């Protein structure tokens, strides 16, 4: 597999970031409009009035600024605090230089060879083997390594893993993923609110009004579920090739593709970081194991964030 070039990949990821920033709000507006239409239709049918698009459009224009404003605030908070949120979700702590000079030397040598600023280093106190890069700019870029991956890989293998994560940073993969994680989280929250509202009405007192409200909320659930599903497709539309490209970039950076292949083989034996419960955060890792061990086709396989690690190893071993 031939690495397509850093500059081209950066341009592609920057374009995809802009596309996501447009696609997700557009999907949100479509969801708001569909729910608004359902509410207006119900009100008009109850009053016997003639339903018109003008009423729906007017109501939509009144609601949209408030919804978009709330979502905008959510996005800005998540954008500004993503590094802290990820550290909390993974339980990672700063890796002190005096604690592990070996890791610092490997990272510094790779960064010097690539002319890039050294990211912050964090450690996850877990004996399993995994690692990930995160951040949205030079100030927040970081590489996190588990205790297990530091202790169980030799220098060449660990260098390959670090090079893989540095390639993600150089390619702007991490920023693109964080944007998608934030937006999918918003849709997941809206779908959860709609579902809880329906449960609340269903457990309450039966009445004509509650039945009508239940109908609207049921429509809202369907609309938000569809929007959430589409948002997942958009997120996974950020091609799984990013992992292949990061592998290829690491092979080019270290000139030792066999070392990363060996590292991935060891990682595949024990990649699960138990402290990480969020699957959104888990997709940042160099290997994101599925909860199920079944090999057969499933919804989970359809939405896999990473290509099969066996295939990645196979491609790395083809490098000459």
Write structural notes for this entry.
The protein is mainly alpha-helical and about 325 residues long. The protein has two domains: about 5-80 and about 175-235, no CATH class; about 95-175 and about 255-300, Metalloproteases ("zincins"), catalytic domain (Zincin-like). It contains twelve helices and four strands. A four-stranded mixed sheet has the order 1-2-4-3, sandwiched between helices. Helix 1 (about 5-45) packs across helix 2 (about 55-90) and helix 1 runs antiparallel to helix 7. The longest helix has about 40 residues, at about 5-45. The termini are close together.
Describe the protein's topology.
Layout: H1 6-47, H2 53-90, E1 93-94, H3 101-114, E2 120-124, E3 131-134, E4 142-146, H4 147-152, H5 155-170, H6 173-203, H7 208-236, H8 241-254, H9 257-269, H10 279-282, H11 299-302, H12 309-316
Parallel strand pairs: 2-4
Antiparallel strand pairs: 1-2, 3-4
Helix pairs in contact: 1-2, 1-6, 1-7, 2-6, 3-5, 5-8, 5-9, 6-7, 9-12
* Distance separating the two termini: 10 Å
Helicity, in percent?
55-70%
Q: Strand order, biggest sheet?
A: 1-2-4-3
Strand content: 5-15%
Which radius of gyration do the C-alpha atoms yield?
Answer: 23 Å
Order of helices and strands: HHEHEEEHHHHHHHHH
List low-confidence stretches. Answer: 292-299
What does the overall shape look like?
elongated
Average of pLDDT:
80
Helix-and-strand structural type: mainly alpha
- Helices, by number, come to 12
How many strand segments?
4
Largest sheet: 4 strands, mixed
Question: How many domains would you count in the coordinates?
Answer: 2
